[in-house]
Design a protein that fits this description.
By secondary structure, the protein is of the alpha/beta class. The chain folds into two domains: about 170 residues, P-loop containing nucleotide triphosphate hydrolases (Rossmann fold, 3-Layer(aba) Sandwich); about 80 residues, no CATH class. Helix content is about 30%, strand content about 25%. The chain contains nine helices and twelve strands. A hairpin with a 2-residue loop joins β11 and β12. α3 packs across α4. The longest helix has 14 residues. The two termini are about 30 Å apart. It binds adenosine-5'-triphosphate and magnesium ion. The site of adenosine-5'-triphosphate has 12 residues, from β2 and α1.
């Protein structure tokens, strides 16, 4: 793995909320071609890690390198240019907009107060070009046929696919998926499993997921967080057999 280029390298990231240390000296690398799992119990700091990397919470300390260059911690509006995209835990779409509109918004930059909703000011990308990108992204999650439906008319598993398409529209090099299989039934989980493998052919993926069957089958390496600290990292087998991980997480992990 070391001969692959390092896309993302985080060293000693700490994030605090008042007196709560949500992340403490977390270091993590992501190489080209990898799917890396970030797992751990509820409240361990997984979403906070994504939030720190996407400028939604402030970082107390820690350094970031992207594509082998030092990088200051991004603001949300930097992410598209930095080749990073994420999904939100849950779905996080606009229910009263169409699928296509929601996906198009994924290519726009975040403003401080939230998404810039107008499809204007898209840094030179015309709306037509954006529509094409959005349709391509929808095709990658096999949802092009529902482009013109409103999101609030869709079943939950389909909205999870649309949320991924929204992340794909900016053609990221690094994709952060926060519980893509969360809330899905067994068949949809299998389907999501296959989708993640497909997506991994085009970008590196950092995957937060509680469904261990998905994690174990798609991830090349894992990091395990517990109370904001990395308690183990490595290949799936070594992590699964690590007694600290079993005690903190896997031993108590119900099958979702
Ligand atoms: N914006 C915030 N303000 C204050 N506390 C927060 C904030 N975001 C997260 N926390 C706290 O930080 C800790 C880590 O939360 P986080 O959401 O990152 O956990 P998680 O690993 O994603 O959990 P889950 O698996 O349940 O999604 C928790 O104790 C949570 O209550
Ligand atoms: Mg979370």
């Amino acid at each position: 793995m070391d001969n692959r280029s390092t896309l993302l390298s985080i060293d000693s990231l700490s994030v605090s909320f008042g007196g709560l240390k949500a992340l403490a000296n977390v270091s993590l690398d992501l190489h080209a071609g990898e799917v890396v799992g970030l797992i751990g119990p509820n409240g361990a700091g997984k979403t906070t890690f994504f939030n720190a990397l996407s400028g939604l919470v402030s970082v107390a300390s820690g350094s970031l390198r992207l594509y082998d260059q030092d990088q200051k911690w991004p603001q949300p509006h930097d992410l598209v240019d930095l080749g990073i995209a994420r999904t939100l835990q849950g779905v996080g779409l606009f229910p009263d907009l169409t699928v296509l509109e929601n996906v198009m918004l994924g290519a726009t930059k975040f403003s401080e107060g939230g998404l810039i909703r107008a499809a204007l000011g898209l840094e030179g990308r015309t709306e037509r070009k954006l529509q094409t990108l959005a349709m391509n992204a929808l095709e990658r999650v096999y949802a092009a046929g529902i482009a013109h439906q409103r999101v609030d008319s869709l079943p939950y598993p389909v909205t999870k696919r649309v949320a991924i398409a929204r992340a794909l529209v900016s053609e990221p090099k690094i994709l952060l998926l926060d519980e893509p299989a969360g809330g899905l039934g067994i068949q949809d989980i299998d389907w999501m499993n296959g989708l993640i493998r497909n997506l991994a052919q085009n970008c590196a993926i950092l995957l937060v997921e509680h469904h261990m069957d998905v994690v174990m089958s798609v991830c090349h390496r894992l990091y395990v967080l517990n109370f904001g600290e990395v308690i183990a990292s490595g290949d799936a087998k070594s992590v699964r057999e690590n007694p600290d991980v079993v005690a903190a997480y896997l031993g108590t992990q119900a099958v979702h």
